[in-house]
Amino acid sequence: MTQVLEAQGIEKVFLNGDEKTRVLKGIDLTLDKGELVALLGASGSGKSTLLSIVGLLLRPTAGRLTISGEPVYEYTEQKRAQFRNRRLGFVFQFHHLLPDFTAMENVAFPAAAPAGGISSDMRDRARDLLTRVGLEDRIDFPATRLSGGQKQRVAIARALMNRPDLIIADEPTGNLDRKSADQVLDLMREVNQQDGATFLICTHDEGVAARCGRRLTLEDGQLVSNVAIAPDQ
């Protein structure tokens, strides 16, 4: 099976004057193409820091990270930013849609921003993705007119825009009611199963974790559990 991510000995130390806080303590982790993986842990366990490192937003203090075989932290900051935009997708607890943009413009943004505008091909793909996530009747709606669940579905479509190698989801259902959360999770599972998309989902929700194929647990900056599970339907 193709390996999408490999982390070896990842450490992160934050400095505050003379005080050092060791947040990650030698994380070893691999993700294969097509996996749907939950990352769990109490507040302060290091989940957000690990997610930021995997998402190329925060350089590790030590260790090596490769994504699709590429040694991303050996790249310049500019090349790493280009890689992040082209090869990674992000879904956050708070969708971070651009409020003055339509649903279609928000979805197209990861491709349009580097190109300096939205091409007809980009529009077509964005429209196709919005149709796929059940928002064909909201394509030209501004983000401000969408419900919370609809905004999160737009965010998932946006994450898929550039056909990423890895989609990182940080508490993607944490700001939704149960019905909307279930719909969003159903959609991520569908994309995972039909497209073979790889997901790393940070969550506090045991219901979300139960529907993934593997669960990782962080405790005090260490990976204390890495368990394959039979996901609930």
Write a brief structural summary.
The chain is an alpha/beta fold. It is 34% helix and 28% strand.
How would you describe the shape? Answer: globular
Helix content: 25-40%
Largest sheet: 6 strands, mixed
Number of helices: 7
Rg computed from alpha carbons, rounded to a whole number of angstroms: 18 Å
Q: Count every beta strand, where a strand is a DSSP E run of 2 or more residues.
A: 9
Estimated share of beta-strand residues? 25-35%
Given helix and strand content, the structural type is alpha/beta
Question: What's the end-to-end separation, in Å?
Answer: 24 Å
* Major β-sheet strand ordering: 5-6-7-3-8-9
- Unreliable stretches (pLDDT < 50, length at least 5) are none
Order of helices and strands: EEEHEHEHHHEHEHEE
What is the mean predicted local confidence, pLDDT? 89
Description:
The chain is an alpha/beta fold and 233 residues long. 34% of the residues lie in helices and 28% in strands. The two termini are 24 Å apart.
Feature tags:
six-stranded mixed beta sheet, single chain, globular, three-stranded antiparallel beta sheet, 34% helix, 233 residues, alpha/beta
Describe the secondary structure blueprint for this structure.
Layout: E1 3-16, E2 19-32, E3 36-40, H1 47-54, E4 62-67, H2 77-87, E5 88-92, H3 103-115, H4 120-132, H5 148-160, E6 166-170, H6 178-195, E7 199-202, H7 206-209, E8 214-219, E9 222-228
Parallel strand pairs: 3-7, 3-8, 5-6, 6-7
Antiparallel strand pairs: 1-2, 1-4, 8-9
Helix pairs in contact: 3-4, 3-5, 4-5, 5-6
